[in-house]
Specification:
There is one protein chain. With about 500 residues, the chain is α/β, with parallel strands linked by helices. The chain contains 20 helices and twelve strands. The strands form two sheets. An eight-stranded parallel sheet has the order 9-6-3-2-1-12-11-10. A four-stranded antiparallel sheet has the order 5-4-7-8, with no helix packed on it. Helix 2 links the parallel strand 1 and strand 2. Helix 17 packs across helix 18. It starts with a helix and ends with a helix.
Length: about 500
């Protein structure tokens, strides 16, 4: 399907969403798909998952951020806001194209646990294998023209590929520790190393080229099946990223490329020192004068990849918490005004073929509520937070009466990637909360009844993590905030797909 045809189709979807089309879906990170090569990819298993969704009445596949992961393996700390993760390249497709052999892939150790991603082994073995594929592809007739054509559609590609090549050349060091000329993107310094890094630059362009092909194949299949991709965008960029290196003027940096202030959240009931995230904060005054070109590029890229976009930490578009870069905790930060209203006005004018939902969890102030109302974006609910005596709990909803007019502009989840799976939460929660949950669900079949109630709710979007559909426990948790290891690794076993289909058939058909 052509880009223009796909955009027209997505534009029609967006127009329908203004009438609050009711959609139900499943959350499963791409890395959590089954695969015999150590990590979920954009191949056959992705299409099978899409088929299961479509067969059982789901119209949304919700995923986590798709960027290139680095230290800590978090998809929320990526080397680029634009590039796709090379781990998602499907090796079987490369075998079909004769860029790799089955024997070469089988000889690599990607880990022996089908329920866990071993990022150390992926890093050590997958990239050399993909370099072999690049060497073969670059010898094929027409390859140079194909890459040039792709690069013409990807204005971010050159900066990203050079960044990654320089990072390789510098032994993986962050860009702000490179020699001054390279750190500051001095044209003479870059020209002096251009020949030395040309192979690595070409390699990273090849990876994004193949990822683009495989992504299009997967999303075309989803479109034919009536399944929309719900992507996820972190509000902030990682400090060690091509974004910060190539677009330094958009961030609050000093003249040496060091953050003046970093992002976080202030102390609260859960954390007496607040949270110090460390991401550079934006220079909103510069962005406003510049017409928000960096943010518009991010949103345009999201529209290329996804049908619906969840924007993380939406409150940061109304006002953001800035902490001095040398602070040891987030206690000493202060709130600053952001320019989200003008940014989203600019985005609305661009008429991007993209529905947007906002992660508006936490303590939400009047300015955030006004921005959410102004944009018309759906707010977010998490059912694990809904069961208390507070009548105005924002996570509560009602059973849908079947009228389009009664649908609420909300996206409701049983839980997110940061929460324990529903079955684990149920085991840990107290009797009072269980009683509230039973009353809400109107069922003794708990916690499954909570899922059924969510599916039947009046939220325009309802999304259930795969772990919750399968009633898996703490072993299937995706991420535990505040911990440095063991996260982002859980994978679904191939045989669990049949059980998922059966559970969806029972719950989604009610």
């Amino acid at each position: 399907m052509s880009v223009s045809a796909k955009q027209a189709s997505k534009g029609a979807s967006k127009a329908a969403a203004k009438l609050y089309t009711r959609r139900r879906g499943i959350l499963l990170p791409i890395f959590s798909l089954p695969s015999k090569y150590g990590v979920g990819t954009l191949g056959r298993e992705a299409n099978r998952f899409i088929d299961v969704l479509a067969k059982n009445g789901a119209s949304i596949w919700a995923i986590l951020p798709t960027g290139v992961t680095g230290y800590g393996d978090s998809p929320y700390q990526s080397f680029s806001s634009f590039a796709l993760n090379p781990y998602f390249l499907d090796l079987e497709k490369l075998i079909d194209e004769k860029l790799l052999t089955a024997e070469e892939c089988a000889s690599c150790d990607f880990g022996d646990d089908p329920e866990r991603v071993d990022y150390g082994k992926l890093y050590a073995n997958r990239m050399p294998l993909l370099m072999t594929a690049y060497a073969r592809a670059s010898e094929e007739k027409g390859y140079e023209k194909a890459i040039a054509d792709f690069e013409a559609t990807a204005p971010w590609l050159e900066d990203y590929a050079v960044f990654m090549a320089l990072k390789d050349m510098n032994g993986g060091k962050p860009w702000y520790e490179w020699e001054k000329g390279l750190k500051d993107r001095d044209p003479e310094a870059l020209a002096a190393v251009a020949e030395k890094i040309s192979c690595e630059v070409g390699f990273h362009k090849f990876l994004q080229f193949k990822l683009s092909q495989q992504w299009s194949e997967m999303t075309d299949h989803a479109l034919k099946k009536g399944v929309l991709i719900l992507g996820d965008m972190p509000i902030y960029c990682a400090y060690d990223s091509a974004d910060c290196w190539a677009n330094r003027e958009n961030f609050r940096f000093d003249g040496d490329g060091r953050p003046v202030e970093v992002a976080g959240v202030p102390p609260d009931y859960f954390c007496e020192d607040g949270q110090l995230w460390g991401n550079p904060v934006y220079d909103w005054e510069y962005m406003k004068k510049d017409g928000f070109s960096f943010w518009m590029a991010r949103l345009e890229r999201a529209a290329e990849l996804y049908d619906i976009l969840r924007i993380d930490h939406f409150r940061g578009f109304a006002s953001y918490y800035a902490v001095p870069a040398d602070a040891e905790t987030a206690r000493v930060g202060e709130w600053r005004k952001a320019e989200g209203r003008r940014l989203f006005e600019r985005a609305e004018q661009a008429e991007l073929p993209l529905e947007i939902v906002a992660e508006d969890l936490g303590f939400i102030t009047r300015d955030v509520k006004l921005l959410l109302t102004k944009t018309g974006f759906a707010g977010m609910q998490v059912m694990e937070f809904a069961f208390d005596a507070e009548r105005n709990n924002p996570h509560k909803n009602k059973k849908w009466d079947g009228s389009v007019r009664s649908l609420r502009n909300k996206i409701a989840y049983t839980g997110t990637h940061d929460n324990p799976p529903l079955a684990a939460w149920w085991e840990e929660t107290d009797d009072e909360t269980r009683a509230f949950a039973a009353k809400y669900a109107g069922s003794d079949d708990l916690p499954r009844g909570i899922i059924r109630a969510l599916i039947q709710s009046d939220a325009r979007y309802a999304v259930i993590p795969v772990q919750d559909m399968l009633l898996l426990g703490a072993e299937a948790r995706i991420n535990t905030p505040g911990t440095a290891s063991g996260n982002w690794t859980w994978r679904m076993r191939k045989e669990q797909l049949k059980k998922l289909s059966d559970e969806m058939n029972k719950l989604f058909s009610d």
